[in-house]
Amino acid sequence: MTTSQRILITAALPYANGPIHLGHLAGAYLPADIYARYQRLKGRDVLFLCGSDEHGVAITITAEKEKITPQAVVDRYHEMNAAAFARFGMSFDNYSRTSLPLHHDTTRDFLLAFRKRGILKEKKEKQFFDEKAGMFLPDRYVRGTCPVCGNPDARGDQCETCGTYLDPMQLKEPRSAISGDPPVVRETTHLYFPLGEFQDRIERYVKERDARDGWKENVLQYCRGWFKEGLQDRAVTRDLSWGVHIPLPGYENKVVYVWFDAVLGYISSAKEWALREGRPDAWKEYWLDPATKYVAFIGKDNVVFHTIVFPAMLMAWNDGGKEQFVLPENVPANEFLNFEGQKFSKSRGWGIDVQDFLDKFPADPLRYYLAGALPEYRDSDFTWRDFQAKNNNELADIFGNFVNRTLAFAHRMFNGIVPERGPLNDTDNEALAVLARTPQKAGELFEQYRFRDGLTEVMNLARAANKYFNDSEPWKTARTDPARCATAINISVQLTRSLAILMSPIVPSSAEKLWQMLRLPGKAATQSWDDAGALPIPDAHVLGTTEILFAKIEDETIAGEISALGNVPAAPPAAPVAAGPGPVMIDDFKKIDLRVGKILKAERLPKSEKLLKLQVAVGPETRQIIAGIAKHYAPEDLVGKNVVVVYNLRPAKLMGEDSQGMLLAASDGSGKLAIVVPAEDIASGAIVR
Ligand SMILES: [Zn+2]
């Protein structure tokens, strides 16, 4: 592997129909960014691409619900997610979007070439048609009774109650989601991609790349499952108005199916990047050079599209002989990250959006925490307590503390001038041995997409550095053996530089802050990974000013976040009956002081989609309560309502607002939420038991 090797890195295109949350970051984006930053430090020629996936039926449904255009929906979420990624420190070379004409052209190039070469086949099929609306109904536009669990409002593609994947024709008593009328069955024509014909080649492809680059076991398992089932031909077109239009007779009212155009978004993103660079053909240096290593980072819900569908599409194109696209060398997919023990759920308000999170905490502690908790082999869990513990006990107490004590000592005892390094003793040599081997050890793990283990190696260097500082006792040798003290501080300063480089893929902005504190030329991110173990800072180098690298997170801050969770009723969406916490004694129940309150005033919190600010009379007292019910109640509908308040809940701050108590609310797992109200009018302040 030469140092100039080209690496093309893509991260799954997020769907522009909602804000990204921490689960998305841990699934695909953070691993991709760590990998990209690491490879740049290795001196490789990296192109790192992403963009918004802006087509598909979920977007048109949102648009109809909100009575706006699909373009307005994708504009909103494209902006929102691009901004969230930027704040999180994603180092994309380009963040594109699939509604661009450039992308539509790329998609049509593939479709028309495939059609011309007879790859796509036309098939007639039966589909539901809404006579009142005058249109064919894509799967999600049909609702009806689930044949499995009897849920009367199952979606045509999947029942959200029992999770079964459905075909609209399987629904009992189907109705159109547009007019509400029962649809009729009509014949329609679609183009199909013959995925089945590619099965042998795809199986060989997966085997070969796995042997070469070590695919993850979870990814291979998904592939084996699909191979065993047998790959099926897939419809490439559908009856819909939002998407990439098809310049073929008979296809005027159809668009390209979103699975086909979304993966091509990686190619259009490269083209857009090249145009912006002023070298319109530069994208070919990555996509069309067989020496390029292409790594596609995704979450587990996207595996089939990147290990089977997209490679088959590229093979089909390459068979034409004109241009040869590189296929993914590896598809490192993560499992899911849960939030406090449950799946992230937008409809239930369970979880936290990236922007909301970054309004409260800087990006680097989140990156550090998620990097150590990546669901690389199995699902993992975000908890607020863990987040606080990792920030305080590791980032601040190990890495931050070593930097702080070293630089503070250098300023106090040596006027901020790096002292001379004299002869080395065993303690020095031991620390330098750990330093010398860390870049290679951590690097090998990053090359294998084992980011958690790679981070552990780097943090072990920070641990060794702290131990070195302790064992060297510079505060004693300053008096007894000044030359020894000087050597220990010289080496400690060199170690902080090494850590700045090795930690920069994980905590990029803190690494740059440290780089400035060291007053070294350039940036941490533009150094050489392989030279991170060297000791290049010259004697008498003048250091910059020191500041605290990582702030600790207070208990009450975290308690506020945890009590905010209490305002969102918890129940797994697929479970009809949520498992309760088990029996409690009456004395435990009596510890909860429940009282009737009357809502006097209700208003939205400007920066929150979930929270309402309520003024609630409880007896003679008026309390402010921040409740996570904004998605379920309009403020004006709440005023005058009697509710049940948890009166002795410890006060918390939510989005900067005091919250003195909590409302009781019920949820049934379908995403519905109802506040609990007394059946009769009763004086506010009345005790509930
Ligand atoms: Zn069902």
Low-confidence stretches: 569-579
Bound ions, cofactors and other small molecules, one mention each = zinc ion
CATH topology of the largest domain: Rossmann fold
Give the name of the CATH architecture of the largest domain: 3-Layer(aba) Sandwich
Give the CATH H-level superfamily of the largest domain.
HUPs
| Proportion in β-strands | 15-25%
Q: What gyration radius follows from the Cα positions, in whole Å?
A: 29 Å
Structural class: alpha+beta
Q: Distance N terminus to C terminus? A: 71 Å
Question: What's the SSE blueprint?
Answer:
Layout lengths: L5 E6 L10 H20 L3 E8 L4 H10 L3 H19 L5 E4 L3 H16 L4 E10 L4 E2 L5 E4 L8 E2 L16 E5 L7 E10 L5 H15 L3 H13 L4 E2 L1 E3 L14 E3 L1 H20 L4 H6 L5 E7 L3 H17 L13 E2 L2 E3 L14 H7 L2 H10 L7 E3 L1 H31 L11 H22 L3 H22 L1 H7 L1 H22 L4 H10 L37 H12 L19 H5 L3 E11 L7 E7 L2 E7 L7 H4 L3 E5 L5 E3 L2 E3 L2 E2 L1 E3 L5 E3 L11 E2 L1
Parallel strand pairs: 1-2, 1-13, 2-3, 13-14, 15-16
Antiparallel strand pairs: 4-5, 4-9, 6-7, 6-8, 9-10, 11-12, 17-18, 17-20, 17-26, 18-19, 20-23, 21-22, 24-25
The chain binds zinc ion.
